């Protein structure tokens, strides 16, 4: 097996990716999307 290295690969900014996802989650939360409102019968 020969060893090959991919030097042309673009670096991925994981922090920016996370920040974008968190911002989207927060926007959806403020808009009231995906609310968890299951009623409990046992309390």
TrEMBL record:
Biased composition (Basic and acidic residues): 1-26
Biased composition (Basic residues): 27-37
Protein name: DUF3941 domain-containing protein
Domain of life: Bacteria
Species of the source: Pallidibacillus pasinlerensis
Region Disordered: start-end pairs: 1-43
């Amino acid at each position: 097996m020969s060893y090959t290295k991919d030097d042309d690969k673009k670096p991925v900014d994981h922090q920016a990716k996370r920040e974008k996802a968190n911002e989207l989650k927060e926007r959806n939360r403020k808009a009231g999307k995906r609310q968890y409102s299951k009623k409990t019968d046992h309390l």
